[in-house]
Amino acid sequence: MHLVTLDRSDDPRLRDYTELTDVSRRRLREPAEGIYLAESVKVIERALAAGHRPRSALVLEKWIPEVTPLLEEWDVPVYVGPTALLEEVTGFVMHRGALASMHRPEPPTVADVLRDARRVVVLEDIVDHTNVGAIFRAVAGLGADAVLVSPRCADPLYRRAVRVSMGATLQIPWTRIAEWDEAAPQLRDAGFEIAALALSDTAVDLADFSAHPPERVALVLGTEGDGLSRAALDAADTVVTIPMDRGIDSLNVAAAAAVALWSLRV
What we know:
Elements: E1 2-5, H1 23-33, E2 35-39, H2 41-49, E3 54-60, H3 64-71, E4 77-81, H4 83-90, E5 98-103, H5 110-114, E6 119-123, H6 129-141, E7 146-149, H7 159-164, E8 174-176, H8 180-189, E9 193-197, E10 204-205, H9 206-211, E11 217-221, H10 230-235, E12 238-241, H11 253-264
Parallel strand pairs: 1-4, 3-4, 6-7, 6-11, 7-8, 9-11, 9-12, 10-12
Antiparallel strand pairs: 2-5, 3-5
């Protein structure tokens, strides 16, 4: 680790930290460039604990004592500057004091993710990074083993998703699946029953489903607003619903994930 004091916001060495408020650009750039950002000392610590390699860090001066123990053994630059300058670089005030650019790990295969899992959550086209992060946090805290994400689902390694998950997206095994005509046979071949969480006249009450849960179950959650696609529902072995009161038809997808995972704990 070597400290580099910044005196200009357009330093080309800071490219990893630019355009951070442009979600559409970053969601394309980061996978293409093989990076992701860990925000806050705690998340950086969890990224390193997961075996991920840092590229560099961007730190407010007062946070150097917190970051040094984490990065002192790594041969990486740690860029240091005042609040105003770092805000020019990132586009926001760094309240959490530190960002680290990390090498994005190679995703595991679906077979590797499923091999030792019993409870898997499948995210179909969920676009809000906050929801993705909250679901990963529920997966970590409520005993599920892995997450599969659809081709159009938001990136679990996007900065906001990592932060909201409290680093769980760095700890829980996950990977992307193909479309349902390929993904459903992969799940069934691995011994999973596919349970779609959705509204349906023929849906099974979550309490009844969780009373005698399958040995291995893949719980499928759909995009905000529209819910699961027709293809996902057709691929499901069972449709499960959370009964609601007072005219409310459903919960936020992250809340629904937490309720369902709590109910399925064994």
